[in-house]
Amino acid sequence: MDNIEIKLSRTKITLLIAIGIGFVLIGVPLILNPEQHTTIRYRSPELLRIIGIITVSFFGICLIFAIRKLFDPKKGLIINNNGIIDNTSATSIGLIEWSDITGIATIKVSSTKIIMVYTDKPEKYIERAKNRIAKKVMKANSKLYGSPLSIVSTSLKIKHKQLENLLLNELGKRKK
Predict the structure, then answer these.
(1) Please, where are the H alpha helices in 45-159?
(2) Residue 77 to residues 111, 128, 152, 154, Cα–Cα distance (Å)
(3) What is the rounded CA–CA span in Å between residue 166 and residue 43?
């Protein structure tokens, strides 16, 4: 089999960066002047400051990863005889071997569809995480969704359903 290569979508990543910047810009005033943003629902300036700090922290980290991904020269996803080489997100760990994959399914988190790659060797992949944050996210994914391995199609030049079908077909060929 030839490699199936799927590029990262610079357009989609740029949109994610714009959304991240928007949330950071919303969060900064909540940190600096929470009193000016109190409402009937959110009366406490301290609560608004905490919301602002969480918003800026979370979306700031997301922005850093998105900007790094925007300039990443690697392919987003490669499917070959060895397995799936994932480079779609901050928690991507590279090669996921076909022999370790037990299933593939889509989950929905808020409005985002994520492909979960189930494995009988989750610790093997968690240990390959690039940093402590990625390792913690992978452990949380494993507890919440049954696998540390996830592929986010929002950063790829392919529609989610097409990617899911492609991965299921390739897995089916190897499990026969």
Answers:
(1) 45-70, 122-126, 132-145
(2) 22, 17, 10, 12
(3) 50
Inter-axis angle of helices 10-32 and 45-70, nearest 10: 160
Over its C-alpha atoms, the chain yields an Rg (Å, rounded) of 19
Cα separation, 84 vs 117, in Å, equals: 10
d(CA 39, CA 47): 12
Q: pLDDT-derived band of residue 11, with 50, 70 and 90 as boundaries?
A: very high
Rounded Cα–Cα distance for residues 61 and 50 (Å)? 17
Q: What is the pLDDT of residues 14-63, one digit of tens each?
A: 999 999 999 999 999 999 999 998 888 888 999 999 999 999 999 998 89
Integer CA distances (angstroms), 38 to 22, 28, 44, 173, in order: 20, 14, 7, 58
